[in-house]
Amino acid sequence: MIFNSLTFLVFLSIAFGLYWFVCNRNACSQNALLVTAGYVFYGWLDWRFCGLLALSTASAYLCGRMMGKAKDVAGTGKAWMWLGVAFNFGVLGFFKYYNFFVESVSAACAGLGISLDVPTLKLVLPIGISFYSFMAISYMVDVYRGTIGTARNPLAFIAAHSFFPQLLAGPIGRMPQLLPQFEARRHFEYALAVDGCRQMLWGFFKKIVIADGCATLTDRIFLGVDSYPGSILFLGAFVYAVQIYADFSGYSDIAIGCGKLFGIKLMRNFAFPYFATNIADFWRRWHISLTTWFRDYVYIPLGGNRCSKAKQVRNVLIVFLLSGLWHGANWTFVIWGLVHACLFMPLIFFRKRQEDKRDSWPRTLLGWSFTMLAVMLAWVFFRADSFGHAISYLAHMFSASLFVVPHQFLSMLPWILVCLVFEWFQRHREHAFQIAAWPMMVRWPLYIVTATICLAYQQRSGEFIYFQF
Questions:
Q1: DSSP conformation class of 180
Q2: 361-383 helix and 230-261 helix, angle to the nearest 10 degrees
Q3: Active-site choice (327, 340, 396, 431)
């Protein structure tokens, strides 16, 4: 079951009705409904995945309880924490990286003249496993650190971990924020629910109209590298940058808006990243739940920026390489992470000098232009099938034909322009459709037009990109 389907809208309507009109007496009944809804929603894709979700939840809850009972936190408590972390990383690593590891080691050995015959397995990657595994891991680390107390209500914990809006592609939830909401009875808030509907509508627009429209173009361009001039390939890289943003932020808007319908506030995941003026600013705005996860559980424990320049470089490299690998078992993702790490390096050595400068509009414009160009070119590695494919794409793009005026694939540009301009004017809001203060005579026509456009383009809609991660 995916958000951009009629099945989901029917499911959401039933769950919403039961939640507020049948199961609204106490938190227990509300959580029971959400657990049922979460497993129906997840099992709709493949019921076999439900067992992995249940194991991840059980391991986190039980290890958390054992840490809470441990008298020696630094000894026994730490052992339980590492046991739970190792289990979740182990399951994630097996399903996501086993074949990648085997093939990479075999290829390396073959290069050295060593024959290594290790069989690969026909594994199906469970959708959402990277998201709920990281959520479980962060909970156990938080319990060990004392950031949150041990969860004592198993039903509330299960409901929070399997909350269906964020289950497949985030945002990656944190129990210190979520668990208190699930432990208390939720009361219907009209303003919150309406704001959630607005945010979902804008998410549907970005996914169905922008992202899926761009997908058709990028698929053709990336498959036909040798057939197009450099200007078309440049346009393809730009359109893919828009596609992945509209697709993933669209999902996040729908997920967060859906959570508001049930009285649950999820973490913000995007803050208009394509208006960033440097690479650090971009990563403060892009996939915020993952960025802050790596910051809190990898970067800061390694020393963060409170150490020597050499160690800061090491920390940044580790974080971005892990971030790339988190996205998928392919060297293209690792290279994509390495590119962003290299883009980040000047900020380490010249941060103080840059902070001392005033942000004049020419400097801001220059910083934005460079950042967006760098991010766009890095996305080529993210989208390419292989490292060779990415290099070939960039080589053909940066040729004399780069300056040929493109006469193809321009049909999506008006929609892209509408999206970017609208978000520019709303960039100081939590989300672009936060327009409650607008006059009703403006708001309602905008709702109707946006919904009509989404319905008109619904037939071409496909799965979300981040389902594969």
A1: H
A2: 90
A3: 327
